[in-house]
Amino acid sequence: MPLRIAEMDTPLAEPIAAALTAAISRGDTGYAPAGRLPEAFAGFAARHYGWHPDPAAARLVPDVMSGIVEILQIITAPGDGVVVNPP
Known about the structure:
44% helix, PyrdxlP-dep_Trfase_small, PyrdxlP-dep_Trfase_major, extended, single chain, mainly alpha
């Protein structure tokens, strides 16, 4: 079964259901603000990879594929070839 398919036979954990219900009752159905995530990621990248990304350059995307599409549109020209290896 592909990893992108959710397992629907497993009941939702009660704490997760409660958190979702509370968020919906608040009308909180949009994307979360970045908060300190860019700084946390920059620290993680520095510690683990010696890479020092600028937290101010970080952007949130709704999912990984949206992010990949955005990056490819920035770094490639129409007609360029791109190889994407599936997991």
